[in-house]
Amino acid sequence: xxxxxxxFLIIQAVVxxxxxxxxxxxxxxxxxTGDADAITHGEIxxxxxxxxxxxxxxxxxxxxxxxxxxxxxxxxxEPVQQCRDLHKDYEYMLWTDASSREFIEKVYPxxxxxxxxxxxxIQRADTIRYFVLAHFGGTYLDLDDGCNRxxxxxxxxxxxxxxxxxxxxxxxxxGSTPQHxxxxxxxxxxxxYDRDWGLPYITVMYTTGPLFLSVLWKKxxxxxKNVGDGIDGGRVRILLTEDYHQKPWSFFNTFVGSSWxxxxxxxxxxxxxxWLMLTALGFLAAGIxxxxxxxxxxxxxxxxxxxxxxxxxGGSPWRLGWRRRKGDYELVDRxxx
Length: 337
What we know:
The protein is an alpha/beta fold.
């Protein structure tokens, strides 16, 4: 019985290791702060500071945004206009569904089949932002991100993302030099992550959305490419929450957004609000499953041992029967002779 217990424990350990390895990056995101690459408050000059002009500009003065067509909804006209008024010397590029597909077809035709195959429009809206940053460089902003101050200080980094709650980074505001290695990695990994996870919210988040980007960012940090702060540098800097929004010196004002969220998203948010209870229930369920597997394993071992004892006492009934039949055939043959 001790041997069977050892085998059972080994099997359970292998299963746990495989499961943990499959979600290891997601688990490490829970404790990842990005502090090593954070843009500290001291690095960012105050609004209208003369020090801003002394900084080397790496990211082009381009603002990218996306929408279905060129008619911006009323609720987002104010944040869009805020950014355009503050950055009249920036090129403004609004990517519609038509112009986005045309761009992918002409410049990245190898991705067009995947692009057209996405079941949710938000997935195409997610992917186009990665491609235009990788190709043109510049700053991407969601329509619900208004500008509280000029973005010039953020143009001094090869690439930047901003931290989000509860973990990871978001894709609603980000900047990059053209051909930055991180965004090149992102666009080439999109096809690998293209799958249906059952719930639309999870599918979007993990195929093209912030969770997808967070996982790639976590892997990128350990790839050896996250180095260098110059024009050819591969480092990705992280904008802290206070510098992103909610403070007088923050770069952005956030307006109403997230129009693509459905009922499944509300369920996910409910899970996030009740994570402690769900964690306890998860451990309880795991314990019940473990006990059931232990009982099932004991049943299998017990049956095997009982069969083994019967075989040792009387031999195999099938073998004895075969021998008897064989003897009978031999007697019949001799009688005929």
